[in-house]
Design a protein that fits this description.
Layout (H helix, E strand, L loop, with lengths): L5 H4 L12 H12 L6 E5 L6 H13 L13 H8 L5 E5 L6 H12 L7 E6 L6 H12 L5 E7 L7 H4 L3 E4 L5 H14 L6 H11 L3 H13 L10 H9 L3 H13 L4 H20 L8 H14 L1 H20 L3 H13 L1 H19 L54 H4 L6 H7 L1 H6 L3 H7 L3 E6 L2 E6 L2 H9 L1 H12 L4 E6 L13 H13 L14 H8 L11
Parallel strand pairs: 1-4, 1-5, 2-3, 3-4, 7-8
Antiparallel strand pairs: 6-7
């Protein structure tokens, strides 16, 4: 005769025996004791956390002849019949295999019938598997059930249950058991069942259970059948230890050993990620670590050696690998490549480099370039400039620059040089105009690309005036001007505002064919007029001067006169 499984043998019989679900126990016990129980419940939570057991206990206490403070007596005929599964008051239905409309209609017909007990309890397991038609058929009965009927719907995925059904039930959520509670429960079961199991095997069983009481007892039964000793296999912490040591060969060896013992690559990866999470929590929130005390200390020590940044990166990389493993033809290969990447020095060096860059930025080492550097000389285009005569000093025949000729009848007011609009203060204020290219280079790529096409008009008090080539360009510059203001303020050492204008379109110069000197001067002026106001950049030799040097004795005629 086959022996009863441990998880069935030690199934909770009363609410007080339900482990790790105190919030559920308190709600159900008080509702029954005060005669305020609902007629429709929704129990949701991971597998093996006690949903079906709680539903059976609720059915027992509702039909018990002598309940005690919301607990069944477990001695009367009704309680014993429910435990044996022979009670007419309790009907359990697996919604995964009985998910049709006809199955639900049959259930509704049974619900309308009388029963020998006080209540008739219908337990629908995996209710999220019901078809749309079955949910619609059940909906009306859930809304207005017969007075003697109680529905208990159980599911591992409450999000798949329709909102209309959830709104008509009292939703109680079951949780995974903490590692300490599971370990205490396993030790009690080992003692009560007189099993020979080593302490290391108990720790291993708790880890394999993953917070599920049923899965933990199933693992305990397997270990006890194998002699009660811990199985030698590759643990997640062994993999992480190899990652800490940057030992890619050891990682491949450990993965191969795990696969040879029948481990699924996806499940094994999930175990590694789960332990990495515990390592992360051991540093950020130790009170949330769900490990035994000795194992929690190991996680904290490994986190200190690996570094919290490396732990986070490993979680991210392995999380992406899990997505690839699901659709990869060879999941093992994806796992091996991912772990080798994490174990390589390249990843570690990349992380260290990023951290170093962040530290440099925070310390202020990455500041804007010096705004007091030399002014770049303009590149002259057009006619080739002849070399000055060796007998003449460079400034011997310097001719003052004159205004650029305009088209007939289009004489406008003379432009005021930018230097005259600047404030009289010295230092950073005078440097903003000349340092504009350097300041632009310190901006972000998007802002830099936009403001590279902007020309500086001048500095008017504490306002830097710039000209955009078009109205649309000006609009884009206005949207991103805050970053430019911040850079200007940082360069000047005080608050600097920004005024953006639209540059006036240039008109071609009218040149007389009988005056070659004037024509040459006008063309050259157009080439070197970089600031758009008819003035050469200070420090650059005028083209007019160079032409005068080439033609000694020539007279320059102003076309405006």
């Amino acid at each position: 005769m086959a022996t009863q499984s441990l998880y069935r043998r030690y199934r909770p019989r009363r609410f007080g025996e339900l482990k790790g679900q105190e919030h559920v126990i308190r709600a159900l016990r008080n509702a029954v004791a005060n005669d305020r129980g609902g007629q429709a419940y929704l129990f949701s939570g991971p597998r093996g956390t006690g949903k079906t057991s709680a539903a059976r206990i609720l059915a027992k206490v509702l039909n018990c002849t002598s309940p005690d403070k919301g607990e069944p007596c477990c001695e009367c005929e009704s309680c014993l019949a429910i435990e044996r599964g022979t009670s007419f008051d309790v009907l359990e239905l697996d919604a995964a295999s009985n998910n049709g409309v006809d199955n639900i209609r049959e259930l509704i017909e049974r619900a309308a019938m009388g029963n020998p007990g006080r209540h008739r309890v219908f337990i629908l397991d995996e209710v999220h598997m019901l078809s749309g038609g079955a949910e619609a058929a059940l909906l009306k009965t859930l809304e207005e059930p017969p007075p003697h009927v109680v529905f208990v719907l159980a599911t591992t995925d409450p999000q798949k249950v329709s909102e209309t059904i959830r709104s008509r039930t009292q939703h109680l959520q079951f949780r995974l058991l903490p590692a300490k509670d599971l370990e205490d429960h396993v030790r009690w079961v080992v003692k009560d069942a007189k099993l020979e199991v080593s302490p290391e095997a108990i720790r291993q069983v708790v880890e394999q259970g993953g917070g599920s009481a049923r899965d933990t007892l199933s693992a305990l039964e397997l270990v006890a059948a194998g002699g009660g000793e811990a199985e030698v296999f590759v643990r997640p912490e062994d993999i992480i230890e190899s990652l800490i040591n940057h030992d890619a060969a050891a990682v491949l060896t450990q993965v191969g050993a795990a696969m040879q013992r029948g481990h699924d690559p996806k499940a094994f990866t999930e175990q590694i990620v789960r332990f990495l999470r515990e390592m992360f929590l051991s540093s950020m929130a130790p009170q949330l670590v769900q490990l035994a005390e000795e194992h929690a200390k190991l996680a904290a020590d490994m986190t200190a050696r690996y570094g919290i940044a490396s732990v986070v990166r490993a979680i991210e990389v392995l999380g992406e690998a899990l997505l690839d493993i699901r659709r990869a033809p060879d999941p093992r290969l994806v796992l091996e490549v991912t772990l080798v990447r994490l174990a390589s020095n390249t990843v570690a060096n990349d992380t260290a480099s990023l951290l170093a860059r962040v530290e440099r930025l925070e310390s202020g080492s990455a500041r804007p370039r010096d705004v007091t550097g030399p002014i770049p000389r303009p590149r002259l285009t057009g006619a080739t400039n002849p070399s000055p005569s060796p007998a003449q000093p460079p400034q011997a025949n310097r001719v003052a620059p004159i205004e650029r000729p305009t088209s007939p009848g289009a004489r406008g007011p003379a432009h005021t040089p930018a230097s005259q609009t600047q404030s009289a203060s010295a230092g950073p204020v005078d440097d903003l105009v000349t340092a504009w290219p350097s300041i632009v280079r310190t901006l972000k790529a998007t802002v830099r690309a936009l403001y590279s096409a902007v020309e500086v008009v001048g500095l008017e008090g504490d306002t830097l005036v710039v000209a955009a080539p078009s109205e649309m360009h000006k609009k884009k510059c206005v949207e991103l001007q805050e970053a430019v203001r911040a850079a200007l303020t940082s360069a000047a050492g005080r608050a600097i505002s920004l005024e953006i204008r639209v540059a006036a379109p240039r008109q071609p110069a009218t040149v007389s064919a009988a005056k070659p000197a004037t024509a040459a001067r006008s063309a050259a002026d157009d080439d070197v007029d970089l600031d758009g106001d008819g003035n050469d950049i200070e420090g650059a030799e005028s083209v007019v001067d160079q032409i005068a040097k080439s033609f000694p004795g020539a007279r320059i005629v102003d076309t405006k006169k």
